[in-house]
């Protein structure tokens, strides 16, 4: 298996985002109120798919913060995710691997949240082995601190993703005409293994649910985990299984290498790992065949690359031809 070419084209460069200057006065005044002064610099960040503003702010007095804001009129789903992230971040304000939440804004249309600007950068791409190891160590430490989870109201991962991760079952019922040959040959057993993953992934640990390079910040000696709208409950190894193919897609080592070097995988059941990997492969395979969603940076190139990585991984892990 190899990572996809053109890494920089897979995730957004920030050009689709709303600029700080284009936010409503009410949102900017709210942010400046929390900052305690007028904003003199706003730098839009790359990564992710949301059309909203994602900015690092600096005031005339030198105070800094990170803000993200989106309008439900541009993309309702993005606004819902911001609201969900506000609830999750409020429960994580004491964890050293999560930027401290300063506050939230919601007028029914615009939703925003502000947190520490932790500085630092996302990992260099293509992924380097030492950075992968650093993230895996930090993730295991985070999981130890957050098992059981301290955030109220979260669902089990199997419940939160019940629809999204039944993709092979839907594909088996109505295969796309351009479905790849390997998937077509193995649809029935892919669907059968996928159906087992909910029973194999129960747990009380806090899961991020969307770990990839642009949701990780390396700040000095710290590894910060950002963007929490997909948080759920489950075993810590599930976050590693979902993270592993993103590393490969972005030019890093193979998924099995990632799993073998993760402290979180020590007690992971092999059948659970396979089932979770199969479910992820189905999700990306289904998504790559859908039209681009309106109002977002097009995620299909990323999902297409992820689908290839995941299918290659399943083929290697199972020996299915």
How large a portion of the residues is in β-strands, by DSSP E?
5-15%
Please state the overall shape, judged from the principal axes of the Cα atoms.
globular
Largest sheet: 5 strands, antiparallel
- Helical amount among residues, as a percent range? 40-55%
Summarize the helix and strand pattern as letters. HEEEHEEHHHHHHEEEEHHHH
Number of domains: 2
Output the strand order for the largest sheet: 1-2-3-5-4
Give the second-level CATH assignment, the architecture of the largest domain.
Answer: Alpha-Beta Complex
Radius of gyration: 20 Å
What would CATH call the class of the largest domain?
Answer: Alpha Beta
- Quote the average pLDDT: 94
CATH fold topology of the largest domain: Aminoglycoside 3'-phosphotransferase, Chain: A, domain 2
The CATH homology group name of the largest domain? Aminoglycoside phosphotransferase (APH), C-terminal lobe
Description:
The protein is α+β, with helices and mostly antiparallel strands. Helix content is 40%, strand content 15%. 44% of the residues are buried. It has helices at residues 25-35, 76-90, 129-145, 157-160, 167-173, 181-185, 187-194, 197-200, 236-249, 255-260, 270-288, 300-318; strands at residues 39-44, 53-59, 64-71, 101-106, 110-115, 205-207, 216-219, 222-225, 232-234. It has two domains: 7-115, Phosphorylase Kinase, domain 1 (2-Layer Sandwich); 129-318, Alpha-Beta Complex (Aminoglycoside 3'-phosphotransferase, Chain: A, domain 2), CATH 3.90.1200. The protein is globular and about 60 Å long. It has twelve helices and nine strands.
């Amino acid at each position: 298996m190899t990572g996809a070419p053109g890494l920089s084209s897979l995730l957004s460069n920030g050009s689709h985002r709303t600029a700080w200057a284009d936010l409503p006065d009410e949102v900017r005044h709210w942010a400046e109120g929390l900052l305690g002064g007028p904003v003199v610099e706003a730098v839009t960040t790359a990564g992710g798919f949301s059309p909203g503003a994602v900015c690092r702010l600096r005031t005339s007095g030198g105070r800094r913060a990170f803000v993200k804001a989106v309008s439900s009129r541009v993309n309702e789903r993005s606004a819902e995710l911001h609201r969900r992230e506000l609830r999750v971040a409020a429960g994580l304000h004491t964890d050293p691997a999560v930027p401290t939440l300063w506050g939230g804004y919601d007028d029914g249309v615009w939703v925003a949240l502000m947190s520490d600007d932790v500085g630092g950068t996302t990992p260099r791409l293509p992924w380097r082995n030492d950075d992968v190891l650093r993230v895996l160590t930090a993730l295991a430490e985070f999981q130890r601190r957050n098992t059981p989870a301290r955030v109220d109201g979260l669902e089990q991962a199997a419940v939160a993703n019940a629809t999204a991760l039944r993709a092979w079952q839907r594909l088996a019922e109505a295969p796309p005409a351009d479905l790849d040959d390997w998937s077509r040959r193995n649809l029935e057993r892919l669907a059968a293994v996928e159906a087992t993953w909910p029973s194999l992934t129960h747990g009380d640990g806090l899961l991020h649910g969307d770990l990839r390079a642009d949701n990780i910040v390396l700040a000095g000696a710290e590894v910060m985990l950002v963007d929490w709208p997909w948080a759920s409950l489950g075993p810590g190894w599930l976050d590693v299984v979902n993270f592993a193919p993103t590393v490969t897609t972005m030019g890093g080592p193979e998924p099995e290498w990632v799993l073998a070097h993760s402290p979180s995988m020590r007690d992971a059941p092999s059948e659970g790992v396979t089932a979770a990997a199969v479910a992820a492969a189905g999700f990306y395979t289904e998504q790559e065949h859908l039209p681009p969603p309106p109002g977002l940076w097009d995620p299909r190139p990323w999902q297409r690359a992820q689908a290839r990585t995941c299918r290659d991984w399943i083929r290697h892990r199972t020996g299915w031809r």
